[in-house]
């Protein structure tokens, strides 16, 4: 049986506004039938703190610290918590909600898409698996996250290695299209990450950072080989092809498509109204 061909875009490093605008543009084009399903890999320049659509920037984020570290800042169109995009491979998947292989529920669709990431970890020789909360208490804790930091706890079908979260993802559904994007950590500067959020006091910050060490981990903490970004890209590209049973065909944006992305970036993701609105 022939495998379905999806597009593959490696857009390399982009600004925070460009990265979010391109994900949004891909969703638009897919909803209009102009673009088949897409998997995209990207990085961030400068390194960036992104926050979830529903987060309160003023209440949760220390903007002075963001500036001091020279970081970019952007609000995602997806939910979830704060993510420091620095030493990582970021991915996005854009696919119609009514795609025959996509379950109707968010959680199950999340599992299907994340199968590609799981296989990517396996391709790197890592024993990753899906975290599924077993008790009602665990499930409730996911609905009421205590921390503004995304990697603080594995949620439904998050990927873990040796009990610690190795990839964080978020999903939105708009215009009949699923957009899932997420971070695959290669390395992590925990002190920098924890300096970007507001806490009631230092003791709470210390306690949360200590707990975080037991819950989240970067790839290169788990392996003696230093996995490079290029190695990660090759492994996860292969992983998505295997996990979703597809063939990925490289695609370059046209000038017109690029202009459309730049327009969204400027109008939405570079505007204070969007980024600080809550």
What does this structure look like?
The chain is of the alpha/beta class. The protein has one domain (4-275): BirA Bifunctional Protein, domain 2, CATH 3.30.930. Helices cover 37% and strands 26% of the residues. The chain has helices spanning 16-31, 57-60, 63-68, 106-123, 136-143, 190-194, 202-213, 229-243, 255-269, 272-275, and strands at residues 4-14, 38-44, 48-51, 72-75, 83-85, 88-96, 128-131, 158-161, 164-174, 177-185, 246-250. A hairpin with a 2-residue loop joins strand 8 and strand 9 (164-174).
Descriptive keywords:
10 helices, 3-stranded mixed sheet, 11 strands, alpha/beta, 8-stranded mixed sheet, 278 residues, BirA Bifunctional Protein, domain 2
User: Number of domains in the coordinates?
Assistant: 1
**Strand ordering within the main sheet:** 7-8-9-10-6-2-1-11
Number of helices: 10
The shape is globular
Radius of gyration: 18 Å
Structural class: alpha/beta
The fourth-level CATH homologous superfamily is Bira Bifunctional Protein, Domain 2
How many strands in all? Answer: 11
For the sheet with most strands, the description reads:
8 strands, mixed
Q: Enumerate the spans where pLDDT stays under 50 for 5 or more consecutive residues.
A: 141-154
Portion of residues in beta strands equals 25-35%
H-E order? EHEEHHEEEHEHEEEHHHEHH
The third-level CATH topology is BirA Bifunctional Protein, domain 2
* Helical content (DSSP H or I, runs of 4+): 25-40%
Q: How widely separated are the two ends? A: 49 Å
Mean pLDDT: 90
Report the oligomer: single chain
The CATH architecture can be named as 2-Layer Sandwich
């Amino acid at each position: 049986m022939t495998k379905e061909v999806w597009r593959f875009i490696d857009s390399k490093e982009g600004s925070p506004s460009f990265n979010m605008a391109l994900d949004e543009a891909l969703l638009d084009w897919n909803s209009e039938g102009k673009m088949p399903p897409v998997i995209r890999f990207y990085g961030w320049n400068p390194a960036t703190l992104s926050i979830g659509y529903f987060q309160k920037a003023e209440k949760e984020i220390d903007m002075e610290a963001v500036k001091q570290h020279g970081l970019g800042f952007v609000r995602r169109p997806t939910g979830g918590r704060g993510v420091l995009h620095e030493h990582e491979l970021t991915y996005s998947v854009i696919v119609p909600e009514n795609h025959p292989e996509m379950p109707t529920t968010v959680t199950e669709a999340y599992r299907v898409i994340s199968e590609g990431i799981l296989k990517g970890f396996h391709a790197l020789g890592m024993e990753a698996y899906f975290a599924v909360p077993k008790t009602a208490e665990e499930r409730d804790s996911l609905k009421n996250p205590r921390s503004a930091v995304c990697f603080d706890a594995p949620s439904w079908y998050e990927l873990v290695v040796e009990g610690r979260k190795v990839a964080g993802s978020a999903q939105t559904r708009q215009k009949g299209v699923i957009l899932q994007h997420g971070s695959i950590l290669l390395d992590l500067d925990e002190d920098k990450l924890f300096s970007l959020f507001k806490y009631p006091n230092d003791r709470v910050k210390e306690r949360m950072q200590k707990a975080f060490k037991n819950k989240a981990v970067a790839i290169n903490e788990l392996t003696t080989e230093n996995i490079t970004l290029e190695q990660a890209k090759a492994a996860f590209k292969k992983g998505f092809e295997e996990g979703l049973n597809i063939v990925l065909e490289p695609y370059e944006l046209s000038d017109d498509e690029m202009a459309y992305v730049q327009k969204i970036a400027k109008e939405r993701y570079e505007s204070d109204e969007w980024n600080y609105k809550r």
